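Internal tracking record. Fields below are filled automatically when a chain is submitted to the structure queue. Please do not edit lines marked as system-generated. If the sequence contains nonstandard residues, flag them in the REMARKS field before resubmitting.
Queue: standard
Priority: normal
Entity type: single polypeptide chain
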Amino acid sequence: MKHLILGSAGQVGHHLVKILKEKNEEVILFDIIDSEEQDLRIHNNKLLEEQIQKCDFVHFLAFDIGGSLYMKKYQDTYNFISNNIKIMNNTFDMLEKYKKPFIFASSQMSNMSYSTYGVLKAIGERYTDSLNGIVVKFWNVYGYEKDEEKSHVITDFIKMAKKDGVIKMRTNGLESRQFLYGDDCAECLIELSRNYDTIDRTKQLHITNFEWNTILEVASLINDIKPCKIIPNLETDTVQLDKRNEPDPYILNFWKPKTTLKQGIQSLFNQF
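SYSTEM-GENERATED OUTPUT FOLLOWS
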């Protein structure tokens, strides 16, 4: 199968490219980081059209998004909204035109209407449903990141611990999250692409490790690898407001996560 990965240089895309190549699958890379031609905001993007025609399956991972600091700063701005609307409109137009099977990467935040990011992902889900694609909901996927402005909490904490021996938290750390290592996420996407026609479209596909951990516990796991000073903040979570969804276990019929949070953090720690 020839896989087109939109957002191939991103956090999830990076892992998906690696795992697909390990499985000797054919991969087409597509990311704005590689060239301006690969900007999904371009209307009638000829390169995108060419690559969609060539591929057998599309992984729609591209989005203007980052960690909590990036979201807090940008998610309510005109450019953030406009960028993501353009990305979705242009990509879904091509998917509709060529009738390609695809997965759209949404978020477990798509039902959080107070979040602009969540609302945009909910719109993407409606687009996907109209084309009978597959919607997946990511839960705090972590892995190697290059863009510091868009980096997520685990990457931030590891870099702080390695550089200064101090983890300065942005919150009190009491909010709970479910984290998933990038390699496990990639394996899941591949299994879903292989089972595309058998997946019940009425079910929700939550890609997560199904375990709750606080942000403070994340810092403690990094401290176990490299002893450091952990400094919580007085602020509470202002992005997700610590709202908790519960993931639908339906996805476990196709895939199960293999990497514990401790193992994933150790692996990521070794990469920096």
